[in-house]
Amino acid sequence: MCKGGILLLESLLLLGYFALFHPGNQAVLPWGKSPTILHKVCDFPFLFRDPELMPILAGTLVSVYYGSEQNRDVVQQELV
After folding, report:
1. Could you give the angle at which helices 69-79 and 54-65 cross, rounded to 10 degrees?
2. Which domain holds residue 9?
3. Where does the UniProt annotation place the signal sequence (predicted)?
C-alpha cells in the first residue's frame, strides 16, 4: 500500500476514535460548507470494494453515527 493509502487509513481511524461515544465531537462532523467531513467519508466507494479496507471504513462510519440521529440520517442518505 502506498503512503497516501496509509495516511487515508490512519485518518479514518483517527476520525473514528474522535467520534466514538462522544456526542460533542459527533455533532461537529456535519458542520460547515458542503461537502462536510461526514459527507466526504461517505464518498469513499472504492474502500467498500477492498475487503481489507472495508472494516476500517465501516467501523469509522458506525463510530460517527452511533447515538447521533443527525449523523445517522446523513450517512443513510449518502450511502443510498
Report:
1. 140
2. 3-79
3. 1-27
DSSP assignment of the chain equals: --HHHHHHHHHHHHHHHHHTT-HHHHHHTT-SSSS-HHHHHHT-HHHHH-TTTHHHHHHHHHHHHTT-HHHHHHHHHHH-
On the CB side of 72, how many CA atoms lie within 13 Å of its CA? 5
Q: Name every residue whose Cβ is closer than 8 Å to that of residue 17 and which is 6 or more positions away in sequence.
A: 63
Number of domains comprising the chain: 1
